[in-house]
Write a structure and sequence with these properties.
With 279 residues, this protein is of the alpha/beta class. It is 45% helix and 14% strand. The chain has helices spanning 30-45, 72-76, 92-112, 131-134, 165-169, 171-180, 186-191, 204-216, 220-236, 239-261, 269-274; strands spanning 5-11, 14-19, 51-56, 118-122, 125-127, 139-143, 147-149, 184-185, 197-199. The strands form two sheets. A six-stranded mixed β-sheet has the order 1-2-3-4-6-9, with helices on both faces. Strands 5-7-8 form a three-stranded mixed β-sheet. Strand 2, helix 1 (30-45) and strand 3 form a beta-alpha-beta unit. Helix 3 runs antiparallel to helix 10 (239-261). It is globular, with a radius of gyration of 18 Å. The structure holds zinc ion.
Length: 279
C-alpha cells in the first residue's frame, strides 16, 4: 500500500511507521508526506491501536525536505489536501505560501493533534524538515548517534516552517541552533528536555517498542485526555499563535530571497555551512 513507508504492527496495540526512502536518506518528497499522513490516519482510525511509533530505516532519520523533487506543485495536485487554503499553482508568494501552509505547517500541526500517543524513534541525522516529523510526536527516543540541526538560517530563512524551536529547546538554545546551524547531540537534546531518553543504537528499536507496549497497556481514552491536556497547556502558553507569527515571517524570508535571487532560498547557503568550521 505504501511505497515510501513500512507500516507494521510489532505488538498488540502498537503500530510502527518507518520512513523508507534509503536512496535519499529519507528526504521528504510530496509522496512521502502524504503517505505518512495516510499511515497516521489509518493507525488513528483503528480502534485496536493505542500507540504509534514513527521510525526510519537506514543510518539516518531524515535529511529534510527533498529539494530535488522535479515538479512539487504538479505533484501536489495528485493528492487529497488536508487544508482548505489551496491555490498551489498561483504565481508569486501566494502559491509558495499555499504549498508550505498545506505540506509543512498544515501536516505537522495535524500530526501534533493526533489523539493517540505518538513516539519518534530517531537515529543518525535529523536535519531541518526532519524536525517537523519528530517535534509533532509526543515522545522522542534518540539513539546515542542522533544529531539534530536546523540549517535554514544559512540559506536566508528563519528556521523550519513548523517553528517548534523555542518550545523544544528553550529560547536561548533555540537561538543558538538557528544562528549557528550546529548539530545538537541526542545527549544535549535530552538535557534540554527535547528528547525523553537516549539509548545505544542497537537498543533503540527494542527500548522504544517496550515503552510503546507499556503505554498501550493503559486505557486509550485516558491517554487521549492526558495528551489533550498537555497540548492545551502549551497552547495556553501561546505556542500556536507564536508558530503562526513565525510562519508569516518565514514567508517574508522566501519572498525576500525571490526578489534578490529569483529563488526561495539564498543560493550561498551551502558555502556558508562549509566555512568557517566550528572550533
Ligand atoms: Zn519554507
Amino acid at each position: 500500500m505504501f511505497e515510501t513507508l513500512i507500516y507494521e504492527t510489532p505488538a498488540t496495540g502498537v503500530v510502527r511507521i518507518s520512513l523508507n526512502r534509503l536512496e535519499s536518506r529519507n528526504a521528504q518528497n510530496t509522496q512521502l508526506l502524504y503517505e505518512l499522513n495516510d499511515a497516521f490516519d489509518r493507525a488513528t482510525a483503528d480502534d485496536s491501536v493505542s500507540v504509534i511509533i514513527l521510525a526510519a530505516k537506514g543510518a539516518h532519520f531524515s535529511s529534510g525536505h527533498d529539494l530535488r523533487e522535479p515538479d512539487p506543485i504538479a505533484n501536489l495536485d495528485k493528492y487529497e489536501t488536508v487544508g482548505t487554503w489551496c491555490g498551489f499553482g498561483c504565481a508569486g508568494a501566494e502559491g509558495w505560501m499555499a504549498r508550505e501552509k498545506e505540506l509543512y505547517q498544515g501536516l505537522s500541526e495535524r500530526w501534533r493533534n493526533i489523539p493517540k500517543p505518538t513516539i519518534a524513534q530517531v537515529q543518525g541525522k535529523c536535519i531541518s524538515g526532519g524536525l517537523m516529523l519528530v517535534w509533532p510526536c509526543d515522545l522522542i527516543i534518540a539513539s546515542d548517534d542522533a544529531l539534530f540541526s536546523d540549517n535554514t538560517v544559512a540559506m536566508g530563512m528563519t528556521g523550519v516552517e513548523y517553528f517548534g524551536h523555542p518550545w523544544e529547546l528553550g529560547p536561548r538554545k533555540a537561538k543558538e541552533m538557528l544562528f549557528t546551524a550546529d548539530f545538537i547531540t541526542g545527549a544535549e537534546a535530552h538535557r534540554l528536555g527535547m528528547v525523553n531518553h537516549v539509548v545505544p543504537l542497537d537498543q533503540l528499536e527494542t527500548f522504544t517498542l517496550d515503552l510503546a507496549r507499556r503505554i498501550a497497556a493503559k486505557p486509550l481514552f485516558a491517554l487521549k485526555l492526558a495528551k489533550e491536556s498537555v497540548n492545551a497547556a502549551e497552547d495556553a502558553q501561546g505556542r500556536h499563535s507564536a508558530m503562526q507569527t513565525a510562519f508569516a515571517l518565514h514567508q517574508l524570508g522566501h519572498s525576500h530571497n525571490m526578489q534578490l535571487f529569483g529563488l526561495p532560498i539564498d543560493p550561498r547557503g551551502a558555502e556558508r555551512l562549509l566555512s568557517p568550521k566550528k572550533g
